[in-house]
């Protein structure tokens, strides 16, 4: 996945997050349903942002950004911002 594709994926996740919140407001989802999906979206977004940062760091270091791999959710979620 290249930077453009990662950014597109991030945009899709953000759009889904907005749609979930709107559906909850309209009463189409329970709070638990919204919360479960938002949690998984948050993890996916964190993975995407991490991968994008890793790709850009590799590029800045003169290495191939294509060698960067997505980290597992447990590892990404343990980071402090």
Please explain how this structure is put together.
The protein has 81 residues and is mainly α. Helix content is 72%, strand content 0%. It contains three helices and no strands. The longest helix has 30 residues. The chain starts with a helix and ends with a helix.
Large-scale geometry: elongated
User: Main β-sheet: number of strands, strand sense, barrel status?
Assistant: none
Q: Runs with pLDDT <50, length 5+?
A: none
Strand/helix succession: HHH
Structural class by sheet pairing and helices: mainly alpha
Helix content: over 70%
Distance between the termini: 24 Å
Q: Report the sheet-strand fraction.
A: under 5%
Strand and helix map with partners:
Elements: H1 3-25, H2 31-60, H3 73-77
Helix pairs in contact: 1-2
Comma- or semicolon-separated keywords:
single chain, mainly alpha
Could you give a quick summary of the protein structure above?
With 81 residues, this protein is an all-alpha fold.
